[in-house]
Amino acid sequence: MKGFSRAAHLLLLPAFLLFLSYGCKQSPQAASLPAHVTVVRTTLAPATSQTTRAAELESDSPEPPLLSREEFDRETDADAATDREERERREFKQRGSTPENHRGGGDPAQIDVDDHPVLLQPGSSRTHARTRADVDALRRTSRSRQPQDFQITLSNEFIEKYKNRVTLETKFEITGHSDVHDIASDGDDGDIHMGGVSDDIGLPFVAEIMNAKNNPALPLIQPGATLEVAGAWRLWCEHPGAPQIQYEMFENGGPPSNPDHVFEIHPVSRLGNVDEKNSFHQIPGFEAYDASTAFVYYESIPCRIVADLQHQKTTIFTPKAKYNYCEFWMQLDEDKQFKVIDGRIVRCSICDSKTVEPIFRNRRMVFVKDTPPEKIVRDLKKGDRIHVLGIPRIDLALVSWRTRAFHTRPEVLTWKLPYEIIVVGVYND
Questions:
Q1: Could you give the CA distance from residue 137 to residue 246 in angstroms, rounded to a whole number?
Q2: Tell me: the pLDDT tens digits for 338-349?
Q3: Which of 86, 141, 327, 343 is least surrounded, with the fewest CB atoms within 10 Å of its CB?
Q4: Among residues 275, 108, 103, 121, which one has the least CA distance to residue 194?
Q5: pTM over 0.70
Q6: Which domains are delineated in the chain?
Q7: CB neighbours (10 Å) of residue 156?
Q8: What is the pLDDT at residue 35?
């Protein structure tokens, strides 16, 4: 019997070693990723998965403010003081005239002030042009408790249509454009931005192309041109100016290339017939905000929501916000990814590096279909981490939920601003 046991052990040992060797091999999913992308399979316990959509939404529970309102305002003002776009906007308003803009590549393209005045004239679906007196009256009657907060009013139909969509596609008229930005930090991000108007959006907005140097779409970007544009929709109170009331009033203060706005298509995934999906990658030489700085700021943004059920509109009062590009490690919190017609939405934790515990959990990451980041995340599993570049936008799914939940939970209307991150690049680690 002893001899049999010894023989059996000898036979089982090679099988056990073979099993170990097989178990340590890279998974087919990981093997299919680009060689330059580092995927970390962490052993840290990911966030508890939610069993229902409602439970997931309710997980956005109120927390003590990470920054006080005074600290938040000081940080916003300090960041704006170094922002090139803010400087250009201040100079424009002081000068009271349209600056010379440049098309990428250095060819000047002077805006025709008569054809593209700062104050837009009425159009087919634009109720009227808003005068300065209108703007001042709106500011006086706004129901904000904080004079520094800005008003964003959206139709509920628009919110419901786009709350779980990644992108928006529309035809728009270009009112002006910047040159291609240098690359350093803050607003020097290598983008080119175009001011525009679209009846589908109903607000002044800006479209931005990432990594725009030598981009094949640059010759198309001309003031007065009307083009099809598609890309990630982005609602963020970065350059708000006057109250932004969708489909009712337009006041296009600021330079034609960068009007007062809260809505963007950023990044652009298609302009005219030029596919821009491959521009979704890290910005070489750019210094983005680190995870701790950016996400502590995002989590601290005050917000108050007013639900107008009679007119089917929702108003968000929130302060001016900054910190466009942030760099972080995202860790998938679940295996199941929410696939939508134009991309996917994935719940993730936010990490400062590839090894430390997450600093925030259960935040939505959105990916534009067929971009390099979306192709990479398709094959990732719960617990995987990748190093990414992202930009924040208001989470309309949570805005929608709060306007329905406040009847039984009135406190939800004063929770912090709900946000999600558009993942626009993966770092080549």
A1: 17
A2: 999 999 999 999
A3: 141
A4: 103
A5: yes
A6: 28-67+322-426 (2.40.50.140), 70-279 (2.40.50.140)
A7: 17
A8: 55
